[in-house]
Amino acid sequence: MPQVTLFRQTKDGKELPTWWLYYRRHGKTFRKSTGTADNTEAEKARTQLEKMLAFDRRDELTEDFFRATRNLDRKEIPLADFLPGTRATITSKGTAGEYKTVDRDFLAFLKERFPSVAMLHELRSTHVEDWVKQMLADGYKPNTVNKKLKIIRIALNIAFNSGLVFRDPSRPVKYVKASEPNKRCFTEKELRLICSSAEGYFRYTAALGLYTAARLGDIVCLRWRDVDLKRGFISFQMRKRRGKAMEIPMHPSLKAVLTELAQESECRPSDYLFPDRAEKYLKRGSPSISGEWVRFLAKLGIVNRSRAYYKKRARLRSKLRKAGKATPPTISRTPSELSFHSFRHSAVSLLKNIGAPEAVAMQIAGHESASISRIYTHLDEASERRWIAQMPDFIQPVPNQK
Prior knowledge:
The chain is mainly α.
C-alpha cells in the first residue's frame, strides 16, 4: 500500500496546528492539508487517502468508491448541463460561439456512438479518443482536431479540479501530430504593394501590425490613452497570453501615421482608434475583422480568395448550424498562408534580418518561448527603440489633397 505521511508545518520555528498529508503519485510529490488539528481525524484522512491511492495504482478505483471516500454528493451531473456551465465566464461572443459549437458536436457524437453515456462521471478516456479518431476519419485537419480537443479538455479539467471526477478523462488522450503552420511573412514586394495601395483604416492598421507585431484584435481595441505620441510608445494588454502588458517604441513612420490619424480624430483618452471595428470585434469576434483584411489582400491579387467564396461558405455553415449538423471539412475554415497575421511574422523577420538580438524580437512580439533567454536578458528602452528605428520604411506618405 502506498505510504502517506502526516506532518505539521512550521513557521518562525513554531509548529502549526493543522495536519498535512505527504505522498507520491505518478512520480510526483504532493502535500495536502487535512483541514484539521485533531489527531484522530487526521489519521482517518491518512488511511482514507492510502486506500484511494492503492485502488488507483491497480486501476480499480470506481466512481462509487471515490465518491464514498470523499463524501461527495451522489447527484449525477448531465454532460449536456455541465459543458455549457463551464463556458459562463467567456466574454467574447465569437469565442463563446466556437466553444458552443464544439460542445454540441461532442455531445452529438456521444449520443450517436455511446448513447448510454449521458452523465459526467460516465465519461471515459476511450470515449474522447474515439471522438478524436472520428474527426480524423471525417477529414478534419490535425490542427482543427487539436483545437476541438483542447476546448473539451478545458471543461473536463474544471470537473477534475472541482472534485467532480477522480480522473480527467481527456488527460490520457494525446494531441494529434500536426504539420507546421502554413503561415508566412510578406515579401518585400508584397509589403510595398500593400503599403502603397492601402488607405484609411487599412493603411493605419498595416503600419501598426508591421511596426508593433501586434495582433489585429489588439490593434482594433487600442484606445487613445494607449498611444503616447510625446514619448513615442504604444502600451496595451494582449488579449491572449493572459492579458500580458506590452509597451512598444514607435517606429518613426508609425509615429507619423498615428499623428495623421490623431489629426482626424477627437482623441479622447477613452475613445478607440477604430471605433467601428472595435465594436464589431467585441461583438462578433476576430472573423468579422480578419475577413475584411483577407478581402483587401485578394483585391490586390496577393491572395486568391474572393468575397463571393467567403459569403457562399458562410451561408452553408450557417445553414448546417441551424439544422444542428456538424460542418464538413469541405466547407470548414481553410486558413490562407497570408492574412493580417502575416504582418506579425514580417515584423519578427525584419528585426532578425537587420541583426536584432533574439531577445529584442521576443520582447517586442510578446513571445513566451525561449523563457530562459528572457529571464537572463534585461532590455532597456533605448535598446528597443534603436532596433525598432532600424526597421525599413515601407509606409508611403500620403500626398496632400487639395
